[in-house]
């Protein structure tokens, strides 16, 4: 059984089909990168998986359970996933440690001592041990995003969804966030991520999916997609990324 199975997923905003029949399976420990032009539906797909958006048609199964079923417990489903967005979304009035322990304590009912010990372990693992008592505005953008990823990890999710987590960062801070994602992969975390960082996608993905106008047009290994794309649209998109970098 796959960890996640998406079948025939459609999403419409104001009469415009943003997702058009997406089929995608994700296996445990697999890293799937979604690539595609701005507006192709990458974020919407992640938001549907996390049930932040309701799909108009199709199904999503997590560990064999249909989470798109109207009777599914959305909060229970979200507890099994970690999601991180482009904007760090840390609570500004809480220390890094309190940000990280909030969900384990309040949602998962872990005791304070245990939650803090786990949070300190994660902070140490990701090089932020010294920042436990700091407030978000005392951290660099890269450190804030690393803390946001750690916060999502703290509930020990089955699946991590990372939406453009490096886009808001200065180039010199991107590297440290990519390092955290690399570390998550080495730890066996199952992830779906959207990125405009093609080099990183190529390095980290097991599977690359190219979305075009809400259609999952092509999927394959990084080698297949980047070195030998099968579809002209995929080739055009990759060429446009290369051209943009030359500007
Ligand atoms: N809440 C919403 N209401 C209306 N339209 C929306 C909403 N969210 C997304 N859209 C539209 O859906 C389309 C897909 O958007 P989405 O953010 O999923 O694309 P994306 O591939 O993630 O783009 P980017 O790379 O720029 O983040 C766009 O045309 C967008 O304007």
From TrEMBL:
<dbReference type="InterPro" id="IPR003593">
    <property type="entry name" value="AAA+_ATPase"/>
</dbReference>
<keyword id="KW-1003">Cell membrane</keyword>
<comment type="similarity">
    <text>Belongs to the ABC transporter superfamily.</text>
</comment>
<dbReference type="Pfam" id="PF00005">
    <property type="entry name" value="ABC_tran"/>
</dbReference>
<dbReference type="InterPro" id="IPR050086">
    <property type="entry name" value="MetN_ABC_transporter-like"/>
</dbReference>
<keyword id="KW-0547">Nucleotide-binding</keyword>
<dbReference type="GO" id="GO:0005524">
    <property type="term" value="F:ATP binding"/>
</dbReference>
<keyword id="KW-0067">ATP-binding</keyword>
<protein>
    <submittedName>
        <fullName>Polar amino acid transport system ATP-binding protein</fullName>
    </submittedName>
</protein>
<dbReference type="GO" id="GO:0015424">
    <property type="term" value="F:ABC-type amino acid transporter activity"/>
</dbReference>
<dbReference type="InterPro" id="IPR017871">
    <property type="entry name" value="ABC_transporter-like_CS"/>
</dbReference>
<feature type="domain" description="ABC transporter">
    <location>
        <begin position="4"/>
        <end position="238"/>
    </location>
</feature>
<keyword id="KW-0813">Transport</keyword>
<dbReference type="InterPro" id="IPR027417">
    <property type="entry name" value="P-loop_NTPase"/>
</dbReference>
<dbReference type="GO" id="GO:0005886">
    <property type="term" value="C:plasma membrane"/>
</dbReference>
<keyword id="KW-0029">Amino-acid transport</keyword>
<dbReference type="GO" id="GO:0016887">
    <property type="term" value="F:ATP hydrolysis activity"/>
</dbReference>
<keyword id="KW-0472">Membrane</keyword>
<dbReference type="InterPro" id="IPR030679">
    <property type="entry name" value="ABC_ATPase_HisP-typ"/>
</dbReference>
<dbReference type="InterPro" id="IPR003439">
    <property type="entry name" value="ABC_transporter-like_ATP-bd"/>
</dbReference>
């Amino acid at each position: 059984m796959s960890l996640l199975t998406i079948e025939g997923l459609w999403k419409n905003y104001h009469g415009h089909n943003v997702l058009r029949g997406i089929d995608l399976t994700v296996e445990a420990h697999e890293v799937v990168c979604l690539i595609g032009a701005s507006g192709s539906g990458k974020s919407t797909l992640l938001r549907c998986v996390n049930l932040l958006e309701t799909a108009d048609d199709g199904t999503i199964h997590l560990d064999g359970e249909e989470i798109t079923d109207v009777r599914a417990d959305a909060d229970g489903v979200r507890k099994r996933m970690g999601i991180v967005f482009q904007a760090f979304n840390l609570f500004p009035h809480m220390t890094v440690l309190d940000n990280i322990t909030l969900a384990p304590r309040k949602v998962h009912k872990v005791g304070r001592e245990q939650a803090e010990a786990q949070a300190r372990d994660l902070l140490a693992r990701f090089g932020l041990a010294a920042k436990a008592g700091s407030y978000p505005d005392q951290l660099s953008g890269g450190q804030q995003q690393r803390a946001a990823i750690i916060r999502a990890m703290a509930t020990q999710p089955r699946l991590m969804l990372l939406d453009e987590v490096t886009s808001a960062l200065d180039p010199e801070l991107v590297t440290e966030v990519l390092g955290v994602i690399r570390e998550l992969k080495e730890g066996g975390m199952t992830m779906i991520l959207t990125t405009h960082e093609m080099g990183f996608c190529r390095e980290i993905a097991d599977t690359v999916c190219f979305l075009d106008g809400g259609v999952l047009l092509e999927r394959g290994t990084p080698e297949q997609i980047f070195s030998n794309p099968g579809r002209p649209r995929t080739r055009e998109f990759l060429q446009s990324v290369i051209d943009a970098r030359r500007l």
